[in-house]
């Protein structure tokens, strides 16, 4: 194409990272039920995942959304699944689900607007695209688990040169973190 540039789409994700020591337990569960590939990705709650052709505009939007949100508590309790629609077993987000939904809605009401195949449902994936026996085991063995933590920031991720997700910026809720 002579005389015109085609903008390249860049993958972008905004997530709630899980604090230590909870992160280590969750990573162990992901390894046990989902294998090393699942454990390689840090446990998180996705707020939005998509792509942008203008990273700067998208980042400015994410910063504005974070600055307008307040810290909130998340409680993870029991398991759920998206089967048979999607091969996923997850921990349920109970307290904090509404706040996650509000942040998600604010993020997609701007340059991150995109079509969702399914409605937004905050959750923490434990097993994904593994055999039914592993998903059944995860769903049964973790059904009584619960944990809670405060969410004071959200992480902005992009793909690095190796194709792995990497943290680009941590954004404190209610303004920049110090």
UniProtKB/TrEMBL annotation:
Q: Name one GO molecular function term.
A: ligase activity
* Record key words, sorted: Ligase
> InterPro entries this protein is in?
2H_phosphoesterase_YjcG-like, Cyclic_Pdiesterase
Under which name does UniProt file this protein?
2'-5' RNA ligase
Gene source species: Paeniglutamicibacter psychrophenolicus
């Amino acid at each position: 194409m002579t005389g015109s540039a085609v903008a390249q789409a860049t993958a972008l994700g905004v997530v709630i990272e899980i604090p230590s020591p909870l992160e280590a337990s969750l990573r162990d569960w992901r390894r046990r039920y989902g294998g090393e590939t699942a454990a390689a990705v840090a446990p998180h709650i996705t707020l939005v995942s998509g792509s942008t052709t203008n990273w700067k505009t998208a980042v400015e939007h994410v910063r504005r959304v974070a600055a307008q949100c307040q810290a909130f508590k998340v409680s993870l309790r029991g398991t759920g699944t998206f089967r048979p629609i999607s091969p996923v077993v997850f921990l349920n987000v109970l307290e904090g689900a509404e706040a996650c939904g509000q942040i998600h809605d604010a993020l997609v009401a701007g340059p991150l607007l995109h079509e969702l195949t399914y409605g937004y449902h905050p959750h923490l994936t434990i097993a994904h695209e593994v055999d039914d026996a592993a998903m059944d085991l995860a769903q049964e063995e973790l059904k009584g688990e619960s944990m809670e933590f405060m969410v004071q920031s959200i992480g902005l991720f992009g793909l690095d040169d190796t194709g792995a997700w990497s943290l680009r910026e941590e954004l404190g809720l209610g303004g920049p973190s110090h």
